[in-house]
Amino acid sequence: MKKLGWILVSVLLLVAQTSCSSAGDSGKVELTYWPAAHPVEVKFAKDVVKEWNRKHPDIQVKVEPLPASRSTEEVLLTSIAGGTTPDLTSNINPGALSQFVEAGGMYAIDKIDGAMKTISERTPKDTVESFKSKDGHLYQIPWKGNPVMVIYNKKHFKEAGLDPENPDIGTYSKFLKAADKLTRDKNGDGKTDVWAMNPNVEQTWWQRFFDFYPWYLAAKEGETLLKGNQAAFDNPEAVETIRFFKKVFDEGYAPKSTFKENLLAKGKVSMTITGPFALADLEKQAPDTEFGVVPVPVPDDMEGNQVITYGDPKNIGIFKSTEHPKETWEFAKFLISKKNDLKFLKETQQIPFRKDLEKDEEARSFFEENPLLRRFAEQAPYTRATDDSPKLTEAMEALSLEYQKSAVLGKKSPEKAIKDAEKKVNEILKRQ
């Protein structure tokens, strides 16, 4: 009820900003498209829409970046509740999709003539199947994945006596040993000048997709947090994951505060946990710094295993409120064309869900010029999304709170934090 109340109040704030599809006096179809609010994605969206509008005078698309809020999920739930959804968005989190379906907001893509054929020709079969909902329908068009890995500063590694080209940090103990060497007081004033890494200290639920969750997936060889409608993460791997980050904060390998600046670009940390979308900003802010990319570490007894990480996927959704599903699909199909997939790869440095991308001549030459991005593309097949649950946000909020209490604040043991988190998540999942 509290969440519903928040949604209803927030609707009033969004109504003035949003608009749905229409057919103007001239008879032309007008569609609204919400891309993610990230500047590079907004630019890509505007470029694609400009070309589309030029070629399709009878179907005109308007770009409106996602309205600001704590998260995309809150914005979309709010707009569904208030009937103010656009025709489509390209920022659907697969793990939150069932919330939107349950709220009656999503259009089943497989009901559109020819849609599944186009999607299947572009996207690996396993990827398509993984994004189908429990009712068998496909409510999201697979679009992009961004494997979470560790980007590191090669100069820092060399200064710390670590191999900058092939760093041996693939297990917890080796990673922490390197972190101890990388954390330094360079001017002798008794204060840390360079931290080893900077996992986020905030409780915000989605921040756990860039620390706890990829570590957990790697340790569990791809097993996610839920089984059916029940939490299944009270296990040694989850405990050791929190213990790892608790060690990072306890030993001062990471700051216990947040910074607005990019600490990796500024040379204030040696490693950061992120996806390929971070590369463009690093190139802009630190053009003369050489970086490397490695997978997230695994427990010591898993050394040599193929690492599975969080894929941070975002997909395209068509909303049930659209008055023009066929025309909206036609624009979505244009958005995921080979030409625009390659454009998206180059302009945003993110990985589209396209078959044999690395074998495409144009993409291959681009990867040769951008070897760091190639490392992310190589990791892309070995990723997982989150569990698709209408209670995903609440469940992750509960887990994130316990993670913060233990790893960051040191107020609970890792064992107690995981046990309490699973109990709270199960209580959430049982609620109607």
Structural write-up:
This is Carbohydrate ABC transporter substrate-binding protein (CUT1 family). Keywords: Signal, Transport. InterPro entries: SBP. GO terms for molecular function: maltose binding. One of its GO terms (biological process) is maltose transport. The protein has 432 residues and is α+β, with helices and mostly antiparallel strands. It folds into 2 domains: 2-144 and 312-381, D-Maltodextrin-Binding Protein, domain 2 (3-Layer(aba) Sandwich), CATH 3.40.190.10; 149-310 and 391-430, Periplasmic binding protein-like II (D-Maltodextrin-Binding Protein, domain 2, 3-Layer(aba) Sandwich), CATH 3.40.190.10. Helices cover 42% and strands 12% of the residues. The chain is built from 17 helices and 14 strands. It has helices spanning 2-15, 39-55, 72-82, 97-102, 115-122, 125-130, 154-159, 172-182, 212-219, 236-250, 279-285, 325-335, 338-348, 361-369, 371-379, 392-408, 414-430, and strands spanning 22-23, 29-34, 59-63, 88-92, 141-145, 149-153, 226-227, 230-231, 271-274, 291-294, 309-310, 314-318, 351-352, 383-384. Strands 1, 2, 3, 4, 5, 12 and 13 form a 7-stranded mixed β-sheet that branches. The protein has a 3-stranded antiparallel β-sheet with strand order 9-6-10. α1 crosses α3, α2 packs antiparallel against α13 (338-348) and α9 crosses α10. The radius of gyration is 22 Å and the shape is globular. The N and C termini lie close together (11 Å).
